[in-house]
Amino acid sequence: MEISVMRSLRTSWRASCRTVALAAAVSAAVGLAACSSTPKDDPNSQANLQKLYEEAKEDMISGSYDRAIKTLERIEGRAAGTTLGQQAQLDLAWANYKSGERVQAVAVLDRFIKLNPSSAALDYALYMKGLVNFNDDLGLFGRIARQDISERDQQAARDSMQAFKQLVEQFPDSKYAPDARTRIDYITNSLAAYEVHVARYYYNRGAYLAAANRAQAALLEFQYAPALEEALYLMVRSYDKLGLTQLRDDSERVLKQSFPDSAYLSGNLRKDKPWWQLW
């Protein structure tokens, strides 16, 4: 009887010990989980990420773009796939652009466009990409030399136009679409003027065939740009120098039909301001 009682007591004590140990373990685990999930200590918590974002916005407002870039890069990595992460990417692109890092800004926008094809802000990303590549500022030395926008390398202009065209085609009703269309017309005129500038360069150096070909290329690609008047004139002069009378006469006929009051026909040429110059 005593032996049976003793065995029962030992079994009950062992079970009680196991229960106490399990309860202690659970309590410790809950305590650790509570500590680890405290927003103040979790760098990836919504509260901390929002605080970082507010700091980055303040830096951008004050013009401290380098510091804002570092903060926004941290947010982009920690908040990937969230609305906040998307906003951080867009602000990161803008901060890079404002700090003079155009290539980095475009890279961030390309990453946003690729990773967020269904984002509600996709039209804005395309618009910003167009703006980043769209630069009509000649700079100090360009102004001193009266450099024409069309005389510079046009790859950035073509990239800008491609982004604006994608915006207009995918989001024709976007609030950014009207301005994008205006900029497309501006860039088209600039690219046409660039081709004519190159054609003029060839003509002035006696490369008449190259001049005629470049002017013709401008005529085919940009059918309504103001620079096409001079393109036709260069074709007339170049074909005349080459002795290609039929092509010369054809080009002159098109010039007369398209621009009946052209100064190139009357010989009363004068150096006007470029079409793009508003001052």
From TrEMBL:
Part of the outer membrane protein assembly complex, which is involved in assembly and insertion of beta-barrel proteins into the outer membrane. It is a lipid-anchor. It is found in: Cell outer membrane. It comes from Roseateles depolymerans. Keywords: Cell outer membrane, Lipoprotein, Membrane, Palmitate, Signal. Residues 48-252 form the Outer membrane lipoprotein BamD-like domain. Belongs to the BamD family. Its main location: membrane. GO terms for cellular component: Bam protein complex. PROSITE patterns: PROKAR_LIPOPROTEIN. PANTHER family: OUTER MEMBRANE PROTEIN ASSEMBLY FACTOR BAMD, SOLUBLE LYTIC MUREIN TRANSGLYCOSYLASE-RELATED. GO terms for biological process: Gram-negative-bacterium-type cell outer membrane assembly; protein insertion into membrane. Part of the Bam complex. This is Outer membrane protein assembly factor BamD.
